[in-house]
Structure formats: structure tokens, C-alpha cells
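Q: Given only this backbone (333 positions), what sequence would you predict?
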């Protein structure tokens, strides 16, 4: 057994596997290409999403370290925060979420992911982006003073442990697609952890797949830096990950003028198109932007229409149910 295989066994099973791999027959017919979707929105824990795979390895590391409390940071509608709270509930751990708002105060409405976190029962404090580091220190010190053993998880599950979840996903995906090659795998790229895990997984299997990231927040250069940092951590952690991963491909053209967490016309169109053609829901912040970008890259000739294209559905469904996306006007533009 290789070092990397040993690492990939160090996890806690939080959901049933494999998640489905489905052919998008009507989307493929409409856009004249061969599209598949890896349904990681259907990880069964806490309303689903890609964070479940990351948290299988992160929570194992936390418990091995003797933690009794999970602490993490995220935006007010953070999918990662919601899934951390669900993981803590499942594993009988305490949870503290540090959520960023413009004012540093509680939002006017408890909706979307924030509502689910309330139901899950996690403890919550609010901060501004500029004060986040100080708030993390304050909460960790307070928990230590109470005799707790807190484990801090970087926002988005950004860590080598988080990336291991998507190394493992590659094995699952290749087993499902064994009869056909995968030419492109398209994913939303936020902190870069999922993207790094996919690159490492395909490199480990010596399978040539272009992993295409669609940035939802950061510049291409920042995404590339974060992805390389995670790949370096994986190797330093004894993972023996091949270094010949090829190009890191990230597009930052699709974030939109209003930045992270906002809808673009292309994202809205993608959400509606996939729902009406396949009965599958995307959302505007991550998957809608990514799917819309994928169609645009196809139209621009940067994806070969004769190739096999797998879209990684990273979840985020609760994000549809927030006031900025609830108006009929948003969807009839």
C-alpha cells in the first residue's frame, strides 16, 4: 500500500457513496456536446455538497487531535459553515461558526444556509472581514478557557485534508466512467481545495484529464497560488503526489462586476436552462456561474464539442432561498 493510499483511508464516512454520475442527455442535445454531471450535490449529509467529502478527512484529523469542538469561518451564506455544523451534529461534537457580514452584526433575515445552521444548533458569532482573524483568536481562546479542545477549520475546508476528499472522488469517478474517457472536468473554484484534490487524484492515477476551474471570487493568479500551496502540502504530508500535474487552468472572467455571492445574467440563464432541461437545480453563486461559463467556453471553441465533459455539481442548493435571489424579477430578466 502506498503512502497516498494510507492517507486516503484516514477518513470518517459521512455519506453514502458513490454519488451518481449522470449523462445530461437534453443539455447535450441542446448544446451539441457530450455532457455528464457528477452529482456531489447529493452527498446526503446536511443538504449536500462538495464540503462533505472534505469534511470526511478534516473531521478525522480533528478527532485524532482530540478535538471536541469544530470552529470555522465563512460568509453569511457559507455552504461550508452549514456542512461543518451538520458534521459536528453527526459526530456529537460542538460547533462554533464565525460568519462574516458587512456590519459585523447579525443579518436582518435568517434565511438559506443561515436558517439550516440555526436548526442544526451550532453556536454563531459575527464579524467583519477585516476583523475575522481577531475574532477567530477570541473564540479559540474562549473555548480553551472553558476546557474545550477546539479544532479550527479554514474557510471552505481549505487544507490538504480537504483536498484528499477530491483525490478520493477521482477514484470513484473513474470507476463510474470506466467505459469512456473523460476529457474535461469542470468545477467551481473558490479556495482551490477541490481543484487541487482533483488534479492530485488524476495525477496519482496517471490519467490525463483537463481540470478546468471557474473562479467564483478570486483572480486566476490567486487561485493558481492557492492550488499550488495545497499540492505542496499534500506532498509534505507524505502523500507522494506526482508533481507532473500539467497546467492549472482557471478562468476568472465569469465572477461578474458585483463579485462573489452575486448573480450574473449568464449564471441565471444556466440555472434556468439546467432546471428546465434536466430537472436539476443549480444556484447563482457557484454552480450557475460555472455551468454558464462552461457553455461559453464551448461556444468559444475552448472545449471540444466531441469530447466527454464532466461537470462537478458541488451543491449549494440552500443558496437559492435567500432574499436577493427570491424575487421573480431575478429569474425573468
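A: Predicted residues:
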Amino acid at each position: 500500500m502506498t503512502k497516498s493510499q494510507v492517507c486516503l483511508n484516514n477518513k470518517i464516512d459521512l455519506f453514502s457513496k458513490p454519488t451518481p454520475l449522470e449523462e445530461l442527455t437534453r443539455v447535450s442535445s441542446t448544446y451539441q456536446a457530450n455532457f455528464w454531471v457528477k452529482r456531489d450535490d447529493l452527498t446526503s449529509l446536511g443538504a449536500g455538497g462538495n464540503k462533505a467529502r472534505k469534511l470526511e478527512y478534516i473531521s478525522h484529523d480533528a478527532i485524532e487531535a482530540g478535538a471536541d469542538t469544530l470552529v470555522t469561518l465563512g460568509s453569511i451564506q457559507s455552504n461550508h459553515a452549514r456542512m461543518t455544523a451538520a458534521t459536528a451534529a453527526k459526530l456529537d461534537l460542538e460547533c462554533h461558526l464565525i460568519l462574516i457580514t458587512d456590519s459585523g452584526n447579525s443579518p436582518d433575515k435568517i434565511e438559506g444556509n443561515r436558517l439550516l445552521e440555526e436548526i442544526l444548533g451550532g453556536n454563531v458569532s459575527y464579524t467583519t472581514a477585516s476583523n475575522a482573524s481577531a475574532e477567530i483568536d477570541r473564540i479559540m481562546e474562549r473555548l480553551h478557557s472553558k476546557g474545550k479542545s477546539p479544532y479550527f477549520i479554514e474557510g471552505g475546508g481549505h487544507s490538504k485534508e480537504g483536498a484528499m476528499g477530491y483525490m478520493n472522488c477521482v477514484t470513484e469517478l473513474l470507476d463510474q466512467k470506466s467505459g469512456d474517457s473523460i476529457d474535461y472536468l469542470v468545477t467551481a473554484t473558490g479556495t482551490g481545495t477541490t481543484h487541487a484534490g482533483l488534479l492530485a487524484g488524476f495525477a496519482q492515477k496517471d490519467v490525463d484529464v483537463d481540470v478546468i476551474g471557474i473562479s467564483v471570487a478570486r483572480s486566476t493568479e490567486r487561485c493558481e497560488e492557492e492550488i499550488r500551496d495545497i499540492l505542496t502540502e499534500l506532498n509534505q504530508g507524505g502523500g507522494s503526489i506526482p508533481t507532473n500535474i500539467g497546467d492549472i487552468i482557471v478562468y476568472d472572467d465569469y465572477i461578474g462586476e458585483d463579485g462573489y455571492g452575486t448573480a450574473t445574467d449568464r449564471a441565471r440563464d444556466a440555472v434556468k436552462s439546467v432546471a428546465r432541461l434536466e430537472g436539476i437545480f443549480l444556484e447563482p453563486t457557484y454552480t450557475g456561474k460555472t455551468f454558464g461559463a462552461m457553455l461559453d467556453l464551448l461556444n468559444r471553441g475552448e472545449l471540444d464539442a466531441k469530447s466527454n465533459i464532466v461537470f462537478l455539481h458541488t451543491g449549494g442548493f440552500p443558496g437559492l432561498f435567500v432574499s436577493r435571489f427570491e424575487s421573480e424579477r431575478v429569474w425573468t430578466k
